[in-house]
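Title: Comparing notes on inverse folding

I've been comparing how different people in this forum approach sequence design from structure. To keep things fair, I'm posting one structure and asking everyone to reply with a full sequence. Here's the target:
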């Protein structure tokens, strides 16, 4: 399912693609397209997919509404709610009991309680990210340019008569509604560890539900040190608040440990044995370089770091054929954009980069086998990611194709679909898409690059 925007964002649709055959039409070509019936909200820029369920949620950046999509009937079945301001982040648990929204422009943390039908807007200035675990029991919110992390708690019925009384009693940032408040947002308690967070940008929940990994962006977001902070989910439960006069019992200490990750941290995914995190590291020249860091969950240590594309890494996921895909925004502005050195291009054994930059300056992706060797352009750096088998030479290389006629899935990203597919011989054919970037690439045994300071068409490149 792909979101499509029309008429300058005032209207939109949801198109259905045949992912196996890579078609918009049917095999017989008697129908040119398929779509979700009943959906027309403008700029559907976020799709929340639940593979094990028969329903999904789609957020409209124009209307601010969240529509429910029934996969079985391929139709929109109604609205899950509407938020008063534009959302920078939406979180929906698989239980579908709530919808959470971070509305940075208005400084609101929105909650739609589908069990009661109530909608609440908690004041939390500069909130830009919200996450929820699968059980809908831990809700965390991140604030822009801050070293604090916040969580949502649900008060007991009629526990406080007004939100003013609740805020004064528990030290909350805000509680809503004003009369007989139900929800509050409070800082996460880390005990004596006052520097537990450094520009937190997100969180990832372990597969067994026993750990919360807070992603500290660090220097990439204006802070100091990128790291992973381990929290105890039992101390973050939305219903764990007690009416005690002892602060430690009201808001228990959730801190467990902290692990510095020099390569940078903005997104993460786990396979149960390792935690894969992507981010950027500041270089001596002031530019940022992208890295994939692999953390062993058995030893809680960084075991490997692999150089990848720069940019703000916002997507990371496992795919078929034992592959891992990473997506980034605002790429080609950091260290990998610099010109190639002749010594690197002529070094024996140097091979082309297994990565294709998008022609649009705001998006890129890279894909590789978790056991293959990764080759960075303008350098002979190759590492085995996870100790698994290298990628054989005869296997297809991952290529990212640019489709400007289709929109991209994900909030805040430019229109135009970033479509992932595998191909081998087509790598050279689509090499022209990289001509707009100031980076080198190789074709066979020859090397080509753009003239310094300018980007040219393929016919204007020089060897």
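Reply #1:
Here's my take.
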């Amino acid at each position: 399912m792909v979101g499509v925007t029309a008429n300058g964002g005032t209207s939109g649709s949801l198109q259905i693609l045949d992912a196996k055959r890579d078609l918009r039409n049917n095999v017989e070509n008697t129908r040119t397209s398929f779509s979700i019936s009943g959906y027309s909200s403008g700029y559907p820029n976020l799709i929340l997919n639940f593979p094990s369920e028969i329903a999904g949620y789609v957020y409209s950046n124009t209307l601010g509404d969240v529509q429910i999509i029934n996969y079985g009937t391929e139709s929109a079945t109604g609205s899950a709610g509407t938020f008063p301001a534009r959302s920078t982040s939406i979180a929906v648990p698989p239980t579908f009991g709530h919808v959470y929204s971070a509305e940075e422009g208005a400084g609101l943390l929105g909650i739609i309680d589908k069990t009661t039908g109530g909608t609440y807007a908690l004041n939390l200035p500069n909130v830009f990210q919200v996450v929820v675990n699968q059980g809908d029991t831990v809700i965390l919110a991140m604030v822009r340019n801050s070293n604090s992390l916040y969580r949502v708690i649900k008060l007991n019925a009629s526990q406080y008569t007004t939100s003013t009384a609740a805020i004064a009693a528990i030290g909350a940032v805000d509680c809503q509604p004003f009369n007989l408040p139900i929800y509050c947002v409070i800082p996460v308690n880390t005990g004596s560890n006052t520097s537990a967070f450094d520009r937190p940008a997100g969180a990832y929940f372990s597969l067994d539900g026993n750990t919360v990994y807070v992603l500290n962006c660090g220097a990439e977001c204006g802070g100091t040190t990128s790291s992973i902070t381990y929290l105890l989910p039992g101390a973050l439960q939305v219903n764990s608040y007690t009416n005690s006069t002892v602060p430690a019992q009201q808001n228990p200490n959730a801190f467990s440990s902290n692990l510095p990750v020099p390569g940078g941290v903005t997104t993460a995914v786990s396979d149960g044995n390792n935690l894969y995190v992507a981010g950027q590291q500041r270089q001596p020249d002031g530019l940022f370089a992208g890295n994939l860091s692999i953390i062993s969950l058995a030893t809680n240590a960084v075991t490997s770091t692999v150089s990848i594309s720069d940019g703000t890494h916002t997507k990371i996921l496992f795919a078929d054929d034992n592959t891992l895909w990473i997506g980034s925004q605002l790429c080609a502005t950091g260290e990998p954009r610099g010109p190639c050195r002749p010594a690197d291009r002529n070094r024996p054994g140097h091979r082309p980069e297994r990565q294709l930059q998008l022609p649009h300056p705001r998006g890129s992706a890279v894909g590789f086998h978790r056991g293959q060797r990764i080759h960075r352009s303008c350098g002979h750096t190759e590492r085995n990611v996870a100790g698994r088998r290298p990628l054989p030479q005869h296997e297809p290389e991952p290529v990212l194709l640019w489709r400007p006629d289709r929109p991209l899935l994900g909030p805040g990203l430019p229109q135009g679909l970033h479509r992932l597919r595998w191909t081998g011989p087509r790598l050279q054919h689509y090499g022209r898409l990289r001509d707009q970037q100031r980076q080198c690439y190789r074709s066979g045994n020859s090397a080509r690059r753009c003239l310094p300071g300018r980007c040219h068409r393929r016919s204007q490149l020089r060897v």
